[in-house]
């Protein structure tokens, strides 16, 4: 009977141990599957929130960048148009003043020289009459021709020097203005990029820390909930082994929870530090590339602007010189013809009326030459003023169109560069987040499986030890 009792108790104990192991194994597997599902859902939800927040942040940054670049470009265009308009008006006023002063000075000199020459000719005409008159007329024609040619050459030289000087000043002022505007554009874009990168780093750091804190809290609550459920099921299943099993499981659970919290905290901090370092390096690299491309674009635009303005100025100067040369030659030819005809007519009248006729002719000659000179000077001033205004208006239009075209190209290039950088940033951040989530899932899965295996081993050893003690106690009681 004792042997049968021992066999039945042994079989009963082994059956209970096998059932206990099976139930604990099923419970552990079910808990592991639930833990993996909850962690997978939590990770996917966090990844989706991270992608949405990064997408919204990137779109908001792109919209702000486009607005600030558009406002900056419009402000630069308005300033460039105002400065060019003021420069052109100032140049036109200076050109008109210089031409007016030059014309008045030439007219005064011409009147004085003609008055002196006429008085001298009258005194000689009175003495030598017909022969002297013919000789004086020839000399008058020669000196007037030489005087006119000399005055025209001086006028051409002064206008050429004035035009070249004004063109050089215009090129220098436009070059300085363009370089100053490019330097201001580079500074504001550098400051804007650095400010946006700092805001992006701060927002991503806060978002990462908030996500890590939420992950730690959710994992801590999940672990505590699982430990509490495990304690309840083990308490109900093994009421016979309540005291020893509760003590061992409580100590083991606390130790495992503390290890899990420490490992997760270290893992989260390490991941956050790696994320911050990678984002900082990525942002700095993007900022350096943006500064380089903007610097190259600005230098290229400045060089093109200087070349186009230099070519335009040279072309305008050459046209101005040609038009003035043609105008001066035409005026000289008309002056020579009119003076030749007038001189011949005067000679015929001088021969007829001698002294009195000579004086009357000299007075008429002075008046006609004065009126002719004034009329020619006024026509020259009007033609030069109209030519200058027309050239200045064409210069303003060409420079305005060039500036607007360059600003539109700059806006398009900067918009494309910003969108490309934002897309690369979103892709890199998405890949980094997915890689971190996959590593987190793998580490948590391995940690959970390791904890479950240790729990099963400890429970199996504890159950076998308790069964062996039960068999020994039953053997002693049976004997």
TrEMBL record:
<protein>
    <submittedName>
        <fullName>Uncharacterized protein</fullName>
    </submittedName>
</protein>
<feature type="region of interest" description="Disordered">
    <location>
        <begin position="1"/>
        <end position="35"/>
    </location>
</feature>
<feature type="compositionally biased region" description="Polar residues">
    <location>
        <begin position="470"/>
        <end position="479"/>
    </location>
</feature>
<feature type="compositionally biased region" description="Polar residues">
    <location>
        <begin position="1"/>
        <end position="13"/>
    </location>
</feature>
<dbReference type="InterPro" id="IPR052949">
    <property type="entry name" value="PA_immunity-related"/>
</dbReference>
<feature type="region of interest" description="Disordered">
    <location>
        <begin position="431"/>
        <end position="479"/>
    </location>
</feature>
């Amino acid at each position: 009977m004792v042997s049968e009792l021992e066999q039945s108790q042994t079989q009963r104990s082994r059956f209970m141990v096998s059932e206990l192991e099976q139930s604990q194994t099923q419970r552990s597997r079910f808990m592991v599957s639930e833990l993996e599902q909850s962690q997978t859902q939590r990770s996917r939800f966090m990844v989706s929130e991270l992608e949405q927040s990064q997408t919204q942040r990137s779109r908001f940054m792109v919209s702000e960048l486009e607005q600030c670049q558009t406002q900056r470009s419009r402000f630069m265009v308005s300033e460039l148009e105002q400065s060019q308009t003021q420069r052109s008006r100032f140049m036109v006023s200076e050109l008109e003043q210089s031409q007016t002063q030059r014309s008045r000075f030439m007219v005064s000199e011409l009147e004085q020289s003609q008055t002196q020459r006429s008085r001298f000719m009258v005194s000689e005409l009175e003495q030598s009459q017909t022969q002297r008159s013919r000789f004086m007329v020839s000399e008058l024609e020669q000196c007037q021709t030489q005087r006119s040619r000399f005055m025209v050459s001086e006028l051409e030289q002064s206008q050429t020097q004035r035009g070249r000087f004004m063109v050089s000043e215009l090129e220098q002022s436009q070059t300085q203005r363009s370089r100053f505007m490019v330097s201001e554009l580079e500074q504001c874009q550098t400051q804007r990029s650095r400010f946006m990168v700092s805001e992006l780093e701060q927002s991503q750091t806060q978002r990462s820390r908030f996500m890590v804190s939420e992950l730690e809290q959710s994992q801590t609550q999940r672990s505590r909930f699982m430990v509490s459920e495990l304690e309840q099921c083990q308490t109900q299943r093994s009421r016979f082994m309540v005291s020893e099993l509760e003590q061992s499981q409580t100590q083991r659970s606390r130790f495992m929870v503390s290890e899990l919290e420490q490992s997760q905290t270290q893992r989260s901090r390490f991941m956050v530090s790696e994320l911050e370092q990678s984002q900082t390096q990525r942002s700095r690299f993007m900022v350096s590339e943006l500064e380089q491309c903007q610097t190259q674009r600005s230098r290229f635009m400045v060089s093109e602007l200087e070349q186009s303005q230099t070519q335009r100025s040279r072309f305008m100067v050459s046209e101005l010189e040609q038009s003035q040369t043609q105008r001066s030659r035409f005026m000289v030819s008309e002056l020579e013809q009119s003076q030749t005809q007038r001189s011949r007519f005067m000679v015929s009248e001088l021969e007829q009326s001698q002294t009195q006729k000579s004086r009357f002719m000299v007075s008429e000659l002075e008046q006609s030459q004065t009126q002719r000179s004034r009329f020619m000077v006024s026509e020259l001033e009007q033609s030069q003023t109209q030519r200058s205004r027309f050239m200045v208006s064409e210069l303003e239009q060409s420079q305005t169109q060039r500036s607007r075209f360059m600003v539109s190209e700059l806006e398009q290039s900067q918009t494309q560069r910003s969108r490309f950088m934002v897309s690369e940033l979103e892709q890199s951040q998405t890949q980094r987040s997915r890689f971190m989530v996959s590593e987190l899932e793998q580490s948590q899965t391995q940690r959970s499986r390791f904890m479950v295996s240790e729990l099963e081993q400890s429970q199996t050893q504890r159950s076998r030890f308790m069964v062996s003690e039960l068999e020994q106690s039953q053997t002693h009681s049976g004997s």
